Amino acid sequence: LDSRAVTAECQLPHLIKNENVADFREQAFAWVKKYMGGPWARAELKHFRCKGMRGDLTNYLYVCKLILWDGENDGLKILKSEAGYPTKVTLKVYGEIENYVGFNKVEMMTLNVILAERHYIPKIFALFPDGRFEQHEKSRQLRAVEIRKPEVTNHLADYLAEYHNMVMPFGKYAGRLEETLDHYHSMALSTQFEDEARSKLLRKIVRYNIDEELETLKEICFPCHDEVVFCHNSLGEGNLLLTGHKDDRRVQVVGCDMSSYNYRSYDFGHFFATMQFDFGTSTFPYFSRDRSFIPSEETRREMIVRYVRRLDLPVTHQKVTEEKLMENSEKFMLAAHFLHGCWGIVQAEVSELQFGYLEYALACFQAYFEHKILNDL
Fold first, then answer.
1. CA distance 232 to 290
2. Which helix or strand (DSSP H or E) is residue 263 part of?
3. Would you state the torsion angle of the CA atoms of residues 172, 115, 98, 147, taken in this order, to the nearest 10 degrees?
4. How far apart are CA 83 and CA 87, in angstroms?
5. DSSP label at 98?
6. 262-276 pLDDT, tens digit each
């Protein structure tokens, strides 16, 4: 993998509205003083810097930095010696969609504390109702063309084998995926837009008969005779980073907020479905779709075989498990496309992030029906 780091920082408009502050920098500064403590609590606004980060399509990401030397006095230089207090952190502010009914913020916060303690995600310095402060690491997102490389898919197979083996204090029932599909499907169908351009695009999406198609999808995917394990649920570009330094580069999986117990095949279906999308484009709608990136049966099998080898199953069970994962992941590619399509419609209505959510929703439903027809599902 290319070791050159591409900065994720960029100047963004004030995305968070608050009548009590002049701009988001002041809001972020108020949060950092209240929740970070130490030198952050004693700093003045002139010592604080805040820049937006690209990469998350649901939440708002910022880099917050404490300036220890402002060129005028050395009053803050002593703070540098305080152990346990970083001078640069990542601020994640939860997106609008996470405030809707059906989203369990307490469960998500508990989840992230556990994952951080187990070193699956960056260290968390502070949690608060609107977001959290995390350890900041220099990194860049992996692009779609890189994710296809065996060194990445092998790493992800190992990662999933370990992730799926975790025991977590959350509901371990099999119907969670169906509930999530129902939830976003219902929200998508109730979405409306005032401007004609977006209304026209939404009508184009609705022509795919997504109202009734959900029942067809359920008939294809459920019941699923697959083991329920603790799944990532969002494995794919955007949640895969290249971190570390030149001589110690590593792939880090992030975006674990939606993790839950689910069918183990879904993580593979989701990953395979999203491989055809590239979210690194710099012009609207800020993504592209390349059908040539859809993984072949051979590519999918190689990843699944490596995963199964890491499960320490009896040899007689390995082949059966591989075939079951191949069959079910192909079906769950449909579920991932459908879910992302509904999610895109809802995000287009509620989010202030600069992204072509409706265009993405349309592309997901197109991918859904293409996959359904080509694989005779």
1. 24
2. strand 260-263
3. -100
4. 11
5. G
6. 999 999 999 999 999
